[in-house]
Amino acid sequence: MIRAVFFDAGATLIHPxxxxxxxxxxxxxxGEVRFSSEELTRALTRAWEExxxxxxxxxxxxxxxxxxxxxxFLKRVRGHLDGGDVSAEVFARLAAHFGDPSSWRIYExxxxxxxxxxxxxxxxxxxxxxxxxxxxxxxxxxxxxRFAAVSVSSIERSGKPGAEIFHRTCAKIGVGQAEALHVxxxxxxxxxxxxxxxxxxxxxxxxxxxxxHPDRIRTLAEIPTRLG
Length: 228
Prior knowledge:
Layout: E1 4-7, E2 14-16, H1 20-28, H2 37-53, H3 66-81, H4 88-98, E3 104-106, H5 110-119, E4 123-128, H6 134-140, E5 149-152, H7 153-156, H8 164-173, E6 180-184, H9 187-196, E7 200-204, E8 216-217, H10 223-227
Parallel strand pairs: 1-4, 1-6, 4-5, 6-7, 7-8
Antiparallel strand pairs: 2-3
């Protein structure tokens, strides 16, 4: 019996506004339009694929490791675009931008879904691969009171797709692994990782990437029905 629902953060609860591609294009181009959204999307996708294929210890190495992880990541993205570098000034502006709560928005389906689950008696938590800014962002966006626990990879020094961050979150709120359901947008880091850790899982597919997947949902509003 499911007693708790865990959520990924990015592309599940919140999203950047304007999109990442637009912000990177602006900063990398020095104010001039040089890179298209399609080019940025391809470069970002390749950079994340490289991160997943060769995980950096900095990513889960605690708060002190965050700057080096993001500097390396940005250099990967820029390298895939034109082989250029990322200056210290650009890095500082990007860090400030994405650390600003006003740069993020809550998906429209989030408030009502969280309320419905809370009313039904489910404990709620966040399990996210993110830097140490996430708790502050969630607090500024008014989401923190909804969650009994917020587990962040850089703070936990452990992240998805590993099982430990899921198990720690279960322990924090006092549920067994089989009593928790995790919802997120990543097939590997959310759906497959949660199942491998002994949790139930739903794959959030807002953009139609996983047509035919048996545990696919198009909106968070489907969760109460699935649980019911």
